[in-house]
Design brief:
The complex is a heterotrimer of chains A (about 350), B (about 550) and C (about 375). By secondary structure, chain A is mainly α. Chain A has 14 helices and no strands. The longest helix of chain B has 15 residues, at about 55-70. Classes of the chains: A mainly alpha (about 350), B alpha+beta (about 550), C mainly alpha (about 375). Chains in contact: A-B, A-C, B-C. The interface between B and C is large, with 53 and 44 residues.
């Protein structure tokens, strides 16, 4: 096994330990927080006997280690138990909400990358000019602005005053919109080139209209962050010997800037962005609240307010585990790109 | 009422009582004139002592309301309104009991499908295992009860074709014939008896139903010999039994319930109603289609979709964009936006919910009647209703809402009178008291704003200071339902009473041993005991 | 203890560092702006009872939704009247003008926005500073111990840190505040209880013969759970920095010497390892205050707080009035942005002057 393989193995094992820790911490939380879930399920005027029977029906009368064991076993089978409130399975509910959150996160990342990298490059290559100052001010504001307030202001301006975008909601999902294409070009139509893309375009337009403001809201912080990183990275690279050498060889300056300097700048940028995923998901939770975007955020907040423990645990385990996995992948990627760090 | 700031500015600068009186006086002809009778409370109290003994059940309930008004265990606040937005593509009017009956929605023009946007989705589809209006609104499209109510709240037949009282603790329902469940199974008297027992008896249906208290007094049901009828037994006479069955107890298919597990019952439906379940996407939407074999005319709408959006502005937005046909809980500040739109309008009715501040009767300083009355005089309820609720609310002065059995039409809300309030506080001996109002936020329409306004009015008294404490609804309720000792002394809560009978508010909230009681008065207990042992159906 | 810390700070700040701080300050206009903003916000927070024109909780329903100076608002209003149980709708247009007495306008209950913004600074800074201190008190010792002992201790502590990093801080904070309840502590406001505020406000005369109302809130609500939670959520950053510093010096000659002289581990950590990490911890603390101010506002916005006097809470309230009264949400948000910019500029200054090797900026909610 090569050194990279060993690193990957060790890092993955650490990841597994952390995920187990996440599960345990979430489970322990139930026993240290005040208030019984029964109070949130039972009607206002329920008798003590009623409460007791509800507790039994939820398995809450079992000792905690039995409940814990049952829970870990069910997780291993891909299940997350049954919601206290609706008595339905938790796993499908959590996974049904995931696409909305992910598409918001992806849209925000796309906005951020499209805007920030050119902005950072321009800022670095035209140092101390108007555009540089503008980009610097923008990125400073972007980092200091709470995104939920930005969202509310965007709604007031572009939805309420000008009526350009809807205030909130997500009437159609990205996958549903793309689904129209699959039907048109599907096997039953002989994979013919779609001629009638009307429904697809209408759904896409609807989705884009609704996702624009939330994506800007969530993406602004990252746009600002990546602009700063790109700018300082580019400045470092442009000062390096090889860029000076390339210039001396007579290579056109634009080629030098974009091919070499930018590629070297992007490696740390990607790493940092990967590690900011937690901020992205946290930001998505509050952006969802501003725009009534039906993702994991609203599910978690409702679950917490109702003390629906299986649902709280399920959604937080998914977020925690997803975050750990992404971290391992980013670490691996970083090591792959910079094998020197292993030595 | 106009909100002409310049004139207000003048009055405020004038800063005199005369100025305030002028403002009240010129508030226009569309409002009830403010009471100015300082001695009204005292007169009422004396009068009630001289009143003759009540005779009928109605008189007992009215007398109880008078006692409660005089003794003021609550700060009486407002009756909540149900305010809906509806699209121009449908014909529909709001009901009083916060429910939306899909069968009553008529799409116009070429439209055949209807969408409703509520604030929340269901908490599972088992019709006997939930207690929220949002879930009710979904399950009652597919499930029906024995009796029903019309838009005004009057009891009408549904799966029963007749009902009668056999003896003190026994009533009989005649069942409609030719009714079938969505699976095609015929409705039997065994199904009906099973449905009732599943709610009231945990052993019968293997379910701890959260609705057992909704059928208070009912002990069980059994199929009648021979005829297609069911006999329901109660503890004692149970005068409200028909009122309860008109609101609660959906009828389910016994064999379907017995052969499926909890998770299945909570994600599928098998009722007798005009709509049958088409697709169920939990937390997202429920789609119904019209049930062809319904025992009456098929529903006007072929398809009914119920979805949710927790933010009011999202719902308004959906309505104005023609994405939905009915939206619930339009907040006051959005009402005119809808009313002024071409494609939508407002439908509003007084609901069955009362908002009040409980003051625990044996806790200082609330153990003084004078202090409690003072709190009622301190609050400018009229201003709260017109400014905080945008006039969509009614002032109350008793626990029972207008139109309910037992409402006492002779009682007016406490007049706003800070001098009287300060005088009563002095008299109570609790001058200088500091009180804290516990309030949920976002549970009821403008609950936090109402609490902040109430506290601010009380704080304006020279001799009382007040503050507000925002609470998580769950933990607040947790404290309210246990021992009276654990409860905060002073809290805001709302109570919906879909049975339209005073007893269903007074017994749980104001009698000794009531589940959410904050009050103990032997005379009230006695009057309610007498009322509940008398006939005289509501 | 505090004395020793201060000595350590001063001791660590070599004349060269002090020189760096001073020259950075002199040459960078941005630093001056940042320090200026921070001083203004601090003074506002401390002297809120003297500076706020009105009691921030005092409502005046007849003056609700009044726009800020320079704006007027004309809105359609629909009210109802119930006749024989049937609701009838009445429509009218209402014109509301700004007044000098409420320069930033009023909210839905007629409370003065300027006073609420002034008092909101208290909540933000109190949570920001106390939360950061708590995070520091938990994180720095853990980090120092992990870095000093290395090996198993380090591994175990760092896995605990990983678990707490596995949740986005906002999500973790929502969960903890939501589940533990929103406890708050009422702290008496000395400026008000001593009568100082009333006395000073009484003698200030305003143009036009108007006088400031003198009744200000006697207590200040400190959202206790929120402070604990933001501290718990953010300790790990301090642990990481302290651990890095400890790892860097544990094998230095002077530490080895102290060990061979028989110094106890506790003594060595306190005397030799801790002082070394003070500069980076201070810079991190500045950044963390900004992050926690943002986190607190987000929690209040979502209703997971213990106070109703907070910028985030007011933004949430203002959002309900977004179709009619934009200023209710706008004003407190501007206050947050300004405060965070001030803190971040000061953070940049410290970082550039002290060069502790920490990247990043306080932000990300």
């Amino acid at each position: 096994m090569g050194s990279f393989g060993r690193f990957l193995l060790k890092r993955s094992l650490q990841g597994v330990v952390v995920i187990l820790g996440v599960i345990s911490v979430l489970f322990a939380l139930r026993y240290v927080t005040p208030g019984s879930p029964v109070d949130f399920i039972a009607p206002l005027d329920a008798s003590d006997a009623t409460r007791r029977r509800i507790a039994e029906s939820l398995g809450l009368n079992q000792p905690f280690y039995v409940q814990y064991g049952d829970y870990v076993v069910s997780l291993l089978q891909g299940e997350m138990g049954y919601s206290y409130r609706s008595r339905t399975a938790v796993a499908p509910r959590v996974f049904a909400k995931l696409p909305a959150t992910l598409e918001l996160a992806v849209a925000a990342t796309v906005v951020a990358v499209i805007l920030s990298i050119p902005l950072g490059v321009i800022s670095a290559t035209r140092r101390h000019t108007g555009p540089d100052y503008a980009a610097t001010v923008f990125s400073f504001l972007g980092i200091s602005t709470p995104n939920f307030w930005l969202g509310v202001m965007l709604v007031i301006l572009f939805a309420v005053q000008f009526g350009v975008f809807p205030t909130s909601g997500r009437p159609v999902g990205l996958l549903d919109a793309l689904g129209h294409l699959v039907v048109i070009a599907g096997p039953e139509r002989g994979w013919a080139l779609p001629l009638n893309v009307g429904p697809f375009l209408a759904a896409m337009q609807n989705w884009l209209l609704h996702v624009t403001l939330p994506a800007i809201t969530l993406g602004t912080y990252f746009t600002a962050l990546i602009t700063r990183l790109t700018r300082s990275g580019m400045l470092d690279e442009l000062g390096q010997g090889y860029v000076q050498a390339a210039r001396a060889k007579g290579l056109p300056t634009t080629l030098v800037r974009y091919r070499h300097a930018l590629r070297n700048t992007l490696i740390p940028v990607i790493t940092v962005v990967g590690l900011q995923l937690g901020t992205l998901i946290g930001g998505a939770v509050i952006t969802e609240a501003v725009f009534d975007w039906p993702g994991l955020g609203s599910l978690i907040i409702d679950a917490i307010n109702n003390r629906d423990w299986p649902l709280i645990q399920g959604s937080l385990v998914v977020i925690g585990a997803g975050f750990v996995v992404v971290n391992v992948v980013v670490d691996a990627l970083y090591v792959r790109l910079n094998p020197r760090v292993l030595e | 009422m106009s909100r002409d700031v310049d004139r207000r500015e003048f009055l405020t600068l004038a800063g005199t009582a005369a100025g305030a009186a002028t403002l009240a006086g010129c508030s226009g002809g569309n409002e009830t004139a403010t009471e100015t009778n300082d001695g009204s409370t005292a007169t009422d109290t004396e009068a009630s002592e001289e009143l003759p003994e009540p005779e009928t059940r109605e008189e007992h309930l009215q007398r109880t309301n008078r006692l409660v008004h005089d003794d003021a265990p609550w700060i009486f606040l407002n009756r909540q309104y149900s305010v809906y937005g509806k699209s121009a593509d449908i014909e529909w009017e709001a009901r009083r009991d916060e429910r939306i009956d899909g069968y009553a929605i008529e799409p116009t023009g070429s439209k055949s499908s209807v969408t409703i946007t509520q604030s929340k989705m269901d908490t599972g589809l088992d019709p006997h295992d939930h207690r929220e209006t949002t879930t009710d609104n979904i399950v009652t499209q597919a499930y029906e009860g024995l009796l029903e109510r019309d838009r005004e709240g009057k009891v009408i037949n549904q799966l029963a074709t007749g009902y009668e009282r056999l003896e003190a603790g026994q009533v009989r329902f005649e069942l409609r014939s030719g009714v079938s469940f969505h699976s095609g199974d015929s409705l039997t008297k065994e199904d009906v008896a099973f449905s009732i027992n599943r709610i009231v008896d945990p052993e019968a249906g293997d379910l701890e139903s959260s609705q057992s208290d909704q059928l208070a007094g009912v002990t069980g049901a059994e199929p009648a010999d021979g005829d297609s009828a069911v006999i329901v037994s109660s503890d004692g006479i149970n005068p409200v039994v028909f009122a309860l069955f008109a609101t609660y107890c959906d009828i389910v298919n016994k064999s379907w319930i017995e052969s499926n597990d909890t998770a299945y019952i909570n994600s599928n439906m098998e009722g007798t109603g005009p709509f049958m379940l088409d697709t169920y996407e939990q937390d997202v939407q429920v789609v119904f289609e019209s049930y062809d074999d319904y025992y009456m005319d098929a529903a006007p709408a072929d398809q009914l979709t119920i979805q949710s959006a927790s933010e009011p502005s999202t719902r308004v937005n959906q309505l104005l964009n023609d994405e939905t046909d009915i939206i619930v809980n339009v907040p006051p500040q959005n009402i005119s936006q809808i009313q002024n739109a071409d494609n939508a309008s407002i439908s509003a009715v007084p609901s069955t919910r009362i908002i009040y501040n409980a003051m625990i009767y044996n806790r200082e300083p609330f153990d003084s009647v004078e202090f409690r009355q003072a709190m009622n005089h301190a609050v400018d309820l009229e201003s709260i209703v017109s400014n905080v609720l945008g006039s969509f609310g009614d002032q109350t002065g008793q626990p029972t809402l207008e139109g309910f059995t037992g409402y006492n039409p002779d009682l007016d809300p406490y007049p706003y009178d800070t001098d009287e309030a300060e005088r009563l506080v002095e008299e109570s001996g609790y001058a200088g008291a500091e009180i804290e109002l516990h309030t949920p936020s976002g549970r009821y329409l403008k609950d936090l704003e109402i609490s902040q306004a109430v506290v601010s009015y009380i704080d304006e008294l020279e001799n009382v200071s007040a503050s507000v404490k925002q609470r998580d609804f769950g933990t607040l309720v947790d404290e309210l339902v246990g021992d009276l000792e654990a409860s905060p002394s002073f809290y805001l809560i709302g109570w919906g009473n879909a049975a339209f009978d005073a007893s269903q508010t007074i017994i749980p909230l104001l009698t000794t041993g009531g589940a959410l009681t904050s009050y103990n008065n032997d005379r009230v207990d006695e009057l309610m005991d007498q009322a509940q042992s008398m006939g005289g159906e509501s | 203890m505090i004395r020793r810390l201060l000595d350590a700070v001063a001791g660590r700040l070599s004349p060269r560092t002090v020189q760096n701080l001073r020259s950075e300050f002199d040459t960078s206009p941005l630093t001056k702006i940042g320090v200026g903003i921070l001083v203004v916000v601090l003074v506002t927070a401390v002297f809120a009872p003297l500076l706020a024109p009105w009691n921030p909780e005092a409502q005046n329903l007849d003056r609700s939704q009044q726009p800020p100076l320079g704006f007027t608002s004309a809105e359609n209003q629909t009210t109802q009247e119930t006749v024989d149980g049937e609701v009838q709708l009445i429509e009218e247009t209402v014109q509301v003008n700004a007044t000098v007495t409420h320069p930033l306008g009023t909210d839905g209950l007629g409370r003065d926005m300027l006073s609420r913004v002034v008092y909101g600074a208290r909540t933000s800074l109190a949570v920001g500073v106390l939360g950061t201190l708590l995070a520091m008190l938990v994180g720095v010792p853990v980090g120092l111990v992990a870095g000093y002992y290395k090996g198993r201790v380090d591994d175990a502590l760092m896995r605990v840190a990983d678990v707490s990093l596995a949740f986005p801080s906002l999500v973790l904070a929502i969960a903890l505040v939501g589940l533990f309840g929103q406890a708050a502590v009422e702290v008496p406001d000395p400026l008000v209880t001593t009568g100082l505020a009333a006395a000073i406000r009484g003698i200030v005369s305003l143009p036009g013969g108007l006088t400031y109302p003198t009744g200000m809130p006697e207590t200040f609500t400190l959202p206790g759970t929120v402070i604990l939670v933001v501290g718990i959520v953010n300790w790990v950053w301090f642990a990481r920095v302290a651990r890095g510093e400890a790892l860097g010096v544990r094998d230095e000659e002077y530490v080895k010497a102290a060990r061979s002289l028989g110094g106890s581990d506790q003594f060595i950590i306190r005397r030799h390892i801790l002082p070394n990490s003070i500069t980076p911890v201070l810079v991190l603390a500045t950044i963390q205050i900004a992050a926690i101010v943002l986190l607190e506002s987000a929690l209040s916005f979502l209703g997971f707080s213990g106070t109703t006097l907070s910028w985030g809470f007011d933004i949430a309230q203002g959002r309900q009035y977004q179709t009619t009264s934009w200023w209710i949400a706008a004003m407190p948000g501007l206050a947050i942005v300004l405060t965070v910019i001030g803190i971040n500029l000061v953070g940049d200054w410290l970082r550039d002057a002290l060069d502790p090797g920490i990247e990043g900026e306080g932000g990300g909610v």
